[in-house]
Design brief:
Bound molecules: guanosine-5'-diphosphate
Structural class: alpha/beta
Helix content: 40-55%
Number of strands: 7
Number of helices: 14
Strand order of the largest sheet: 3-2-4-1-5-6-7
Strand content: 5-15%
Order of helices and strands: HHHEHEHEHEHEHHEHEHHHH
Low-confidence stretches: 98-103
Amino acid sequence: MSLNKYQNFTAKDYIESIKMGDIISLSKAISIIESSAVKHLSIAQEILEGCLPLSGNSIRIGVTGIPGVGKSTFIEAFGKLLTSKNYKVAVLTIDPSSNLVKGSILGDKTRMIELSTDPNAFIRPTPSGDSLGGVAHKTREAIILCEAAGFNMILIETVGVGQNEIAVHSMVDFFLLLSLAGAGDELQGIKRGIIEMADLFVFNKDDNQNTANIRIAKSDLERALHLFPAKDNGWNPKVISCSALYKTGIDEIWNLVQDYIKLTKNNEFWDKKRNQQNKIWFDEVLKSDLLYLFYNTEIIKNSLVNYKTQVQNQSKTPIKAAQELIDLFKKYFNPNKQ
Ligand code: GDP
């Protein structure tokens, strides 16, 4: 297949070939959506609108944990299990470090070798963009495109660094936290906010000499979980261990995910959560589009530096400067109004 054929691709062409499961189109369309170039805005929008009706029919799972915990090894093992069960698996990795430093925390080529050559898998790193809000809604949009291309299992991998998990939690059905045991302070290592978000806690590297440590860590965590209020969806977060490297415990994890799906589909929390997430998505898009509109309006572009200088040399307070800029913005769109 010639790559030239993509040169003059319209939004409709992208939508059609994504629907046919064409991975190159999918990849290119995700790049268009991630691009912040003005020339891409309308085609990105059109592709997204075209793909939306074909989306939603998947299981979206978030996988998080500190660097080195075994996320990519786990996703490789879990992803292979899923493709062996005829799922089409898309892995979207969010690496917050990738545009700060050259080398990224998640690394690149050596990760997930088996899965990356599996015809039923698609692995795509997502650049973290210039803001967390940006990451979240670009990743959401990448999910939509993957689903339209027929991927019915979406794994979102993120490095456990604070805000990032919150963003991922707001776009997945199920949230899995990978941890390690052995240091004796596992519970301190798991932040409270994350405990509240996780549906499943997995102690990885349950192999070699590590089993006794893991047993202790598991029971400590289980005890701690009792102190948290029950969740509205009726699911009690579970604690389990696995060895991603030796592929043990992976089936059990899949069974628990299925239990969760069954429970929340039966009690309607599955749809409820997705609907809530749509509201969050709407808020994010609205906020980031408004910011974009504001900062790209001629009068703001022309005045911003001047205002920043005035704030810096204290000739204007930040509040007054912000108010004046917003007044300029309002006047720009409604010049006749006082
Ligand atoms: P990530 O940074 O969280 O993606 O972690 P990786 O998947 O790259 O794994 C980090 C290191 O831990 C690698 O050397 C892996 O081979 C190793 N590792 C991952 N899972 C396991 C496991 O279950 N058992 C053992 N012993 N090592 C593992």
